[in-house]
Amino acid sequence: MKKAGFWAAIGVAAALAMPAQAARVGEKAPDFTSTDSNGVRRTLSSFAGKFAVLEWHNNGCPYVRKHYDSGNMQKLQKEWTARGVVWLTVISSAPGQQGYVTAAEENAYLKQANAAPTAVLLDPTGSLGHLYDAKTSPHMFIINPSGTLIYNGAIDDRPTPDPASLSGATNYVAQALTQAMAGKPVSVPTSRPYGCSVKYAD
Length: 202
Fold this sequence. Notes:
- The chain is of the alpha+beta class.
- The chain contains six helices and nine strands.
- The strands form two sheets. Strands 2-1-5-4-3-7-8 form a seven-stranded mixed beta sheet, with helices on one face.
- It has a single domain (about 5-195), classed as Glutaredoxin (3-Layer(aba) Sandwich), CATH 3.40.30.10.
């Protein structure tokens, strides 16, 4: 199998040119309303004045499992929410697609995985995913307290599902949050997201 065919076969997507309406780094992040796994309506505007992370998730994706089975994602969630960051995990898988879960299934998964996001937003229609032009699971976005998008891209610089790659990796999310909280410019504001393509409805 040719290399390109291999990546296509396992559903890996790469960031391409973003459409004009998509969220752009340096601009106001689009507001949204979404329902979380506990039935609570969440809006981005309700978190004004805080840093917010959006993390696209698919529990069947090996790239996502790398970060969850190792505990890496949970560690990030706990570390940054303890510092006042709002962490919103987003599931845009459509019904019948890999990664789709009901609210009850997601809450059971969160407990089993010992995950600690602020909330999990269920987006089966893909409206939130398309608003941010989320390409992959994971795909990470960071919004600063003034509502500006300051990071869009991969979680780190190791685009592989191998957990061993976490050793020595540069975590772009932690790096961006550390720099922004210190009042410094984000040195890597965009990167190419890697992982499984977001399983939107056909």
